[in-house]
Amino acid sequence: MKIPLLDLKTQYAQIKDEIKQAINEVLESQRFILGPKVLELEKEIAAYSQCKYALGVSSGTDALLLALMALDTGHGDLVITTPFTFFATAGCIARLGAKPVFVDIDPVTFNIDPQKLESLLESMTNEELSRVKAVIPVHLFGHMADMQSIVPVCRRFGLKIIEDAAQAIGSECPFNGAVRRAGSVGDIGCFSFFPSKNLGGFGDGGMVVTNDADLCEKMKILRVHGSNPKYYHRIIGGNFRLDEIQAAVLLVKLKYLDRWTESRQKNAGMYNQMLADVSAESFRTPAALPGYRHIYNQYSIRTAKRDELKAYLKENGVATEIYYPLPMHLQECFSYLRYKQGDFPVAEEAALTALALPIYPEMSREGLEYVVYCINEFFNPNS
């Protein structure tokens, strides 16, 4: 049996008539840049994310870049984030001349550890604290970071929060007695619509969300080269626009997002149940903490025999992926930061043990059972 990591062809087959109609409407209108579809999608994503404002942008990476620019991040500034994330999180900080400062992760959720964040901030001098522009918690794999603990720490030190929610649209966490969605808790939230995401377009795309009218207006100007009005530039921005065709596709897919999330959650539940009997040392299934809505952008197990298991599953037709094999502080391009092996042991251990299994919404029970069968055969060949 062949099990892909993601099956976008099957998803497309179910909605292709709607997609073609939506794209054709754009083609007939000949409105391709910041047209009515983009405006409609911005309203829909803002509401879905419990935010007042949303702006469509060219990618999840550019969403982060735009958010940092809106906070006037530049040379000599510091931005605190996790070392266990996709490159864009740290890369956007460095591109602006600021310095990424890393904090180790929670061993259960893969997300930034609030206690270690607090310890870092308390250890900083006043001069260092004055240079911290923002903290970027990453809601990795679809499970939100502990914002209930992170926000008070950041506010105590007067720091802005950019939520990297590229993998977490629709995720939820408990916050001050309520339930809040990814992107709505910090000052700015950033989403990615890369095709492999739970809400994926037909190319690159992203979104920034906020409840701050001034930040929204500034990002709106920065998104179009810093011009306001057109051809008059008080600030330097970039070309960060989401195009109309991507917005049209995403509007169709957004209608199905909660249904797809429920399917992912159902698949995760079946995995958890069927993998509970795997008798392997240090084998862990992903956690979904009480009160959180995990959307399972990835379903990442952990095992000390990760690389051997990955090879075995590949031999048996099961596609997997390693997110992420080398944490940010050990990447060659960040060697100037002078971090070393052992500085963030939890992130380093995750990089050596995490393996994402197929969990796409269209996956059959037979497919799930086959993946579990292969894992059991790997760990218990003689059972």
Describe the structure.
The chain is α/β, with parallel strands linked by helices and 383 residues long. It has 13 helices and eleven strands. The protein has helices at residues 8-29, 36-48, 60-70, 87-95, 114-123, 126-130, 147-156, 213-222, 244-254, 257-275, 306-315, 345-353, 365-379, and strands spanning 53-57, 78-81, 99-102, 132-136, 160-164, 172-175, 178-181, 188-192, 206-210, 299-302, 354-357. The strands form three sheets. The chain has a seven-stranded mixed β-sheet with strand order 1-9-8-5-4-2-3, with helices on both faces. Strands 6-7 form a two-stranded antiparallel ribbon. Strands 10-11 form a two-stranded antiparallel sheet. The longest helix has 22 residues, at 8-29. The mean pLDDT is 97.
Keywords summarizing the entry:
single chain; alpha/beta; Aspartate Aminotransferase, domain 1; 11 strands; 40% helix
